[in-house]
Amino acid sequence: MTKFQALLDHHAKVADRKILGLFGAPNGKTGRAQNFTVTVDGMLFDYSKTNIDETGLGLLLELAEGADLQAKREAMFAGEKINETEGRAVLHTALRAGDSAVVTVDGRDVMPEVRTVRARMFDFVRAVRDGSFAGQGGKITDVVNIGIGGSDLGPAMATIALSPFAKGPRLHYVSNVDGAHIADTLRDLNPETTLVIVASKTFTTIETMTNADTAKRWMRQKVSEPARQFCAVSTALDKTTAYGIDPARVFGFEDWVGGRYSMWGPIGLGIALAVGPEAFEEFLWGGRAMDDHFRSAPLARNMPVLLALVGLWHNQVCGHATRAVLPYDQRLSRLPAYLQQLEMESNGKRVSMDGVDLPYASGPVVWGEPGTNGQHAFYQLIHQGTRVVPCEFLVAKKGHEADLRHQHLLLVSNCLAQSEALLRGRSLDEATAIMAAKGLTGDELDRQARHRVFPGNRPSTTLAYEQLTPFALGQIIALYEHRVFVEGVILGINSYDQWGVELGKELALALQPMLEGRAGTEGKDGSTAALVAWARS
Ligand code: F6P
Q1: What is the pLDDT of residues 3-12, one digit of tens each?
Q2: Are residues 475 and 519 in the same domain?
Q3: Which residues line ligand 1 (CB under 6 A)?
Q4: Residue 387 belongs to what domain range?
Q5: Is residue 83 one of the residues assigned to a domain?
Q6: Is 222 one of the annotated active-site residues of the chain?
Q7: What is the pTM of this model?
Q8: Tell me, what's the pLDDT at 1?
Q9: Which atom of ligand 1 is the closest one to the Cα of 259?
Q10: φ and ψ at 232, to 5 degrees?
Q11: Catalytic annotation present for 397
Q12: Is 257 among the domain residues?
């Protein structure tokens, strides 16, 4: 707490200064851009456009060291049960570990099983892609992944991100229990050439099981044995068998992989079907490269650590409650949604590991949309609203569309322009000069100029990579995973449970019979009882 207080005191002293001044503008004489940028395997993280200076960074690093970050990091990689409320290890890193890795849980090396399941999954992927595994009407043309949360967001995001590498069947993702989702997805598909993946860690999630039943009924209309075109990804192999799915097409994993961290293993089946085993392997290499960096780089040059410290600075120290993720990369359109689960389900906690109320804010609200679309929607508030929204820009040096290079340059210039505008702003004098040049004078000049002022001094970071390849995507996702870990360690919370999702699930189960008229609404609050009555009327 004293280290945290030191940070708050430091912030109080520097809060009003201009970030731009830290560069020794106009020519960056202080070397700040270089000193506050870290590069790893072709990926660059620039956090110079924040109000963090050498002193602030030093205090943030002390906070990390004081939280025993290095020891806790090794405990995670070593398979210790750091998810204390569920008594589980946290080992998504094992899913992307190298061939010689040994990772033990409860004294058992889990790597042989990881490799065996991956090999089976790749065999299945090849069989689907080359047609040796076919539907009852011929080669599989479409795959429908039914899952939700971590069994949907990661694979769905990555499938879009890696679409330039897709040569397999078309992938569709259904998650919502709203029947509209599955109905709209299945409408144009042929049951005879469609493969259904039921992806659920627990194989009990009501949305997924309901949609799986719907898909089975749909398939039965044209196919005599729907189960032959079903496969499953789960930790609950007894339940997949009971559901009638041939164990040969069931890909298991263990409870030490959290749902929102699971796309590196069998939950990534949809990604592998779309892009093939080789590209999927490259994705794993990217994640592993970030793991190696995270474990070996000094904290002051460690990309996930720095990303986390910038996040803590903005949220817990400066008090900015939200964080915008702004990929200038259309294929990362689902990254903000994916990160919402990763970050908010992990670090949206109100008590510490010991069950004590947190003395500071927990993780931030994460939101965003790809640029340049967001510019024409919510950037107005980011530039001129009264709240400060720290922005995280992501951008590739190269697009995949070689013949549209001019469009890519336009995209990059927009990305850089936005972070520059947030930093620099536009003063009243500058706005007045612009409006005076248009012929305004007197009170009208003053009034109009004031609307055109940009306060600037708004923080942003930029994560830049060469091109959105499977390797780069692996780096990006592992980077964000480790950021969540570091933030969680410093906040002293358990980033790996999610008790906050339970209450709503329980109440929904209890409400269903009331909506069907099989139970009364006694004990419900007045509003909920009235809404049930409305739904039934
Ligand atoms: O409701 C939250 C949650 O438990 C997530 O953590 C998880 O990713 C999602 O539901 C889906 O769970 P499952 O993979 O078990 O169906």
Answers
A1: 999 999 999 9
A2: no
A3: 148-151, 200-202, 205, 208, 259-260, 345, 498, 501
A4: 3-66+297-424+458-497
A5: no
A6: no
A7: 0.97
A8: 55
A9: 8
A10: -140, 150
A11: no
A12: yes
